[in-house]
TrEMBL record:
<dbReference type="GO" id="GO:0008696">
    <property type="term" value="F:4-amino-4-deoxychorismate lyase activity"/>
</dbReference>
<keyword id="KW-0289">Folate biosynthesis</keyword>
<protein>
    <recommendedName>
        <fullName>Aminodeoxychorismate lyase</fullName>
        <ecNumber>4.1.3.38</ecNumber>
    </recommendedName>
</protein>
<dbReference type="InterPro" id="IPR043131">
    <property type="entry name" value="BCAT-like_N"/>
</dbReference>
<dbReference type="Pfam" id="PF01063">
    <property type="entry name" value="Aminotran_4"/>
</dbReference>
<comment type="pathway">
    <text>Cofactor biosynthesis; tetrahydrofolate biosynthesis; 4-aminobenzoate from chorismate: step 2/2.</text>
</comment>
<comment type="similarity">
    <text>Belongs to the class-IV pyridoxal-phosphate-dependent aminotransferase family.</text>
</comment>
<dbReference type="InterPro" id="IPR017824">
    <property type="entry name" value="Aminodeoxychorismate_lyase_IV"/>
</dbReference>
<dbReference type="InterPro" id="IPR018300">
    <property type="entry name" value="Aminotrans_IV_CS"/>
</dbReference>
<keyword id="KW-0663">Pyridoxal phosphate</keyword>
<keyword id="KW-0456">Lyase</keyword>
<dbReference type="InterPro" id="IPR043132">
    <property type="entry name" value="BCAT-like_C"/>
</dbReference>
<dbReference type="InterPro" id="IPR001544">
    <property type="entry name" value="Aminotrans_IV"/>
</dbReference>
<comment type="subunit">
    <text>Homodimer.</text>
</comment>
<dbReference type="InterPro" id="IPR036038">
    <property type="entry name" value="Aminotransferase-like"/>
</dbReference>
<dbReference type="InterPro" id="IPR050571">
    <property type="entry name" value="Class-IV_PLP-Dep_Aminotrnsfr"/>
</dbReference>
């Protein structure tokens, strides 16, 4: 079952001239709800506000979304998806001088895949390359065609994720996740730098903070996929799945390592159900 609100009203209807539909003009957030409580809500709201500001939306739109979320009848384990578009506009790319944003919120039931958390997943390197676009890098904007094209490359249900490279061949992210791994030679956890493309995930930022608090060196940089072949303790993350170990990437097999298990245990202890 899924419930939908548009601008605070229970409905699943939007205007056909909405710029989110016509141009992907907007941003979104996907928030895990555990025991009726949205997880890392301040971080999601902060990223939403940042994305809206980058796209030139009025400051009050993020505050309106926060008020909408406060009215939701949340219970149990659910997924909340927030979509904010620039609203109705005239034909053409030029944004309207006065923005009347459309705020769409959906709430659906959610179930954790504990088997993938425990046993790990199979992934592949995608052929499709992410274009370099620093102006929109890090944003969770509505145009996800790059991810759609990459995800269309496989139908095998045993493959859970695809690793995406940029136009220059550097590792960026998964189609739906951020990536981390441990470099045994350098003694550091590594994750791709997202200054030219990719999504700056809330869970990614949180795990970077956790690693630093645990005195584990973490480095953001540009890495070729060959680095993954020499690494261990490879895992993917996002706000909904938490952290999944990657046990197979193409023909390379990995053990679930101690850093992965440490982070999983910390995430479990952090669950906010108060």
């Amino acid at each position: 079952m899924q419930a939908t609100w548009v601008n605070g009203t229970a409905t699943d209807q939007i205007n056909i001239a909405d710029r989110g539909l016509g141009y992907g003009d907007g941003v979104f957030e996907t928030i895990a709800v555990i025991g009726g409580y949205p997880q890392r809500l301040p971080q999601h709201l902060s990223r939403l506000a940042y994305g809206l500001a980058r796209l030139g939306f009025p400051d009050q739109v993020a505050s309106q979304v926060e008020l909408d979320l406060a009215q939701l009848p949340l219970c149990g384990d659910q997924t909340v998806k927030v979509i904010v578009t620039r609203g109705k506009g005239l034909r053409g790319y030029a944004p309207p001088q006065t923005v009347s944003a459309t705020r769409i919120i959906t709430v659906a039931e959610r179930a954790l895949n504990t088997e993938k958390m425990e046993k790990g997943v199979v992934a592949r390197v995608c052929d499709y390359r992410l274009p370099l676009n620093p102006a929109l890098a890090q944003l969770k904007h509505l145009n996800r065609l790059d991810q759609v094209m990459a995800r269309a490359e496989w139908q095998d249900p045993n493959i859970s994720e695809g690793v995406m490279l940029d136009a220059e061949g550097f590792v960026v992210e998964g189609t739906m996740s951020n990536l981390f791994w441990y470099d045994p030679e350098k003694g550091e956890v590594q994750t791709p730098l997202l200054d030219r493309c990719g999504v700056k995930g809330v869970m990614r930022d949180h795990l970077i903070g956790v690693l630093k608090r645990e005195n584990i060196s973490v480095v953001e940089g540009r890495f070729l996929p060959s680095v993954l072949m020499q690494a261990n303790d490879l895992f993917m993350c996002n706000s909904l799945i938490g952290l999944w170990p990657i046990v197979t990437l193409d023909n390379k097999h990995y053990d679930v390592g101690p850093i992965t298990r440490l982070l999983q245990s910390i995430l479990q202890r952090e669950i906010d159900c108060e």
